[in-house]
Amino acid sequence: MKIVLIPAVMLGALAAAPAFAGNKCDVPVAEWQPREALEAKLKSDGWQVRSIKTEDGCYEAYAIDAGGKKVEAYFNPKTFERMGGTSEDSEG
To answer: Measuring CA to CA, how many Å separate 11 from each of 5, 8, 15, 19, 63?
Structure first.
């Protein structure tokens, strides 16, 4: 019974993960700054921005950071505070 329960709990946690991203950026659209302003900020920080889109109420940026790592990062659309994401070493 324990063997069946553990995968079920893990599957439930993984299914709920996208819902948590939506709670990170609970900002009314009227208070959002333009995505071009986020792009300018990231470029001034040394990032090479590939694209910025809206995802679960946040801005989601795909870029190469100043250290040369590929980044998929979420930002609060009002404050541009980084709300999480992932990065990995670039491959050439």
So the answer is: 10, 5, 6, 14, 30
